[in-house]
Design a protein that fits this description.
Layout (H helix, E strand, L loop, with lengths): L1 H59 L6 H14 L23 H70 L15 H23 L7 H9 L2 H6 L4 E8 L2 E9 L11 E3 L4 H8 L4 E3 L2 H7 L4 H9 L3 E8 L5 E9 L7 H41 L7 H17 L10 H10 L12 H4 L7 H7 L2 H16 L8 H9 L20 H16 L10 H10 L7 H9 L1 H11 L3
Antiparallel strand pairs: 1-2, 1-6, 2-3, 4-5, 5-6
Helix pairs in contact: 1-3, 3-4, 8-9, 11-12, 11-17, 11-19, 11-20, 15-16, 16-17, 17-18
Amino acid sequence: MKLNRYIFSTVMLILILFLLINGQQKISKQKQSILKLSNKLIVLREKKSKLNKFIYMEFYHGEKTNKEKLKQFLNEIEQISKSDDIISDISFKIENRDNNNINLIEFNEKFYSFITEIEKVRNFYISETNAIVFNRNILFLFLIVSSFANLFYEIIVINLANKKVSFYLKNLLYKNYDFEIKNTNIPYMDYILSEINTLKTSLKIMDNSIKTTLKGYNLKTTFENLLNDEEFQSYLSFERIGFATIENDYFVADISLSTIDNIKLKRGFKIKRESSDSLMSLINNKEIRIINDLEKHLEENPNSESTNLILKEGYLSSIAAPLYKSNGKIIGILFFSSIKRNNYSEIDKYKISSITEIVSSIFEKNMLIEDLITNSALTFVKLVEGKDPETANHLDRMAQYSKIIAKYLSYEEKYKNKIDYFYMDNLCKFAPLHDIGKVGIPDNILLKPGKLTDEEFQIMKEHPKIGAKVLNYYQNNLKKYDIDTFKLAVKITISHHEKWDGTGYPNGLKGEEIPLVGRITAVADVFDALSSKRIYKEAMSFDKSVSIIKEMSGTHFDPEVVEAFIKALSEIEKIYQELKEI
């Protein structure tokens, strides 16, 4: 209806403009003809007046007209009276002019009739011109009236449309998606209702995603759910999700998930923050960035290795947005990529903005819950460690050492898909719980300044099992909330005293039977024990402690973990100097 109405209005406007232009041209031509005829009539009337004078002098005064003057006069009349393009059907011819036998009375009557005919023609032109002008004015009036009528009609339609749109948007605001969008005869509404229906579908998908795919606190799990959610894929088109963290002066790739098994931009890839103006602008201005032609972007930024790697994976466009905590601290940058060129539009900025807000909110909320739970468990550890003032910073150092070792281990091909930012973050968070089981060890054994007896040592060896039991108790109580916070902590607690050669405790696990987190925390824990003062010993030097760790590689420790430890020594020593007891 809207289209037909516009077509009709357009055709009418073109027709009116055509008539106005054509009429104006005709008016101009008519005015020229009227002017020409009026000038001719003026001359003819002058000649008629002179002819009357000749007749008067000849018939009333008996004065004969000079033959030469009369002949010249008649020539002038005949010349003026010749037909032209205006009066082609009217002509005046003088008969018997050459034999000098002209009846002036009869000639006068014919001449008068000729002038009268010309006047009729002129008057016709005048009447016709007036009619054209009148019609033109009517068209102008019609155009003005119809414009105002259309304006008032539009105002009424917009008012009705606003009421309809307000009704539907109010339902969307209160997340009521069950309403039906009814057809209406109001122009413009088809498009508006179509957009509202699209918005309704999108918001419904988002809400469903919140209830299902976005309920985990682990971002990697969340992104995996999004990648495999067909309904969400219909909301935002993508085949790849990437997540980069910010570590000191670098952007570091941490999560790379794709429906295409061709990952080139792998975990651990990093670029200096100062080398990427677009990503810095994204963070500083809280912007959303769209690149719809990655090939062109690479031509404009030939040194962008990240763009080069994404192109090698087969992606041609991307959209990126920062994730922030509620306090404004950045979590990282989220990337969605597509194999299609020009895949993203301005409306996708709104979509990804909604996604980042939801993901950030859920991530932060669950991290808060996890921190509360973890800290409650950590309280027991602090109570245990608090009994020994010489180990005040042990938990902090050991946690940082574990995270640093895991980071360097993640650079290896074998572990690149297993150790990510969140793995390292959780390892750092839960490593301090490794000795939580000591809460069940009697003080006379726990705080004994000398060497333990065999019997005492057997009791001490029970602390990993006690710790695992405590954390499993926490974990079982949290299952009803779909939270598996302490799964990693249980592995750390139960396995950090196992040895690579199988001589460790409590289960005598060997090699890769030992969980990776246990193998990492074992190195961190022993190194800190060697390099720190205890009740029963003095602290060894940093270099001596490192040397002993190397010697135990392949027996006590996983050689690959020790190798990562050696590569990380500069960062390990920095933590050692910052947190060592004086």
